[in-house]
Design brief:
By secondary structure, the protein is mostly helical. Helices cover about 60% and strands about 10% of the residues. The chain has two domains: about 60 residues; about 45 residues. It is built from four helices and three strands. It has a three-stranded antiparallel β-sheet.
Length: about 130
């Protein structure tokens, strides 16, 4: 509290007594800061370029992959060998039109039983 009345004078005294760095040190430090900011800017630009290039390649590959997928018709429509192995053929007589009999295939024994239960003229095997 004894410095309360000398606030302005104390500030001037401390400022005058403060250690001053050499002029060469200040200049060297300023030059290093300028050089490092240039390196940082270059690094940031390279990183931005790499990100843009990666995104562009991703879009191109997605487009080409999408075309290839579309050529397949959205996926394979062929039945797997296991699915073909367990297909059952029935001779189907449409209700009200028995002259239009034709063979159909179903995928399980339960489907065969249900179909034969609902269509009395149908029978297992080809027509």
């Amino acid at each position: 509290m004894r410095f309360l009345g000398r606030g302005r004078d104390l500030h001037s005294e401390l400022k005058a007594a403060r250690h001053r760095p050499r002029e060469g040190f200040t200049r060297t430090l300023a030059n290093e800061l300028r050089a490092s900011s240039g390196q940082r800017r270059g690094r940031d630009l390279r990183l931005a370029f790499a990100g843009i290039l990666s995104a562009t390649l991703l879009v191109i590959l997605a487009a080409v992959g999408g075309i290839g997928y579309a050529k397949q018709g959205g996926g394979s429509k062929k039945a797997s060998p296991a699915a073909v192995q367990y297909k059952f053929t029935l001779c189907h007589l449409p209700p009200g039109n028995p002259g239009n009999r034709h063979s159909i295939t179903v995928g399980s024994e339960q489907a065969v039983e249900a179909h034969l239960r609902n269509h009395s003229g149908d029978h297992p095997g080809e027509c």
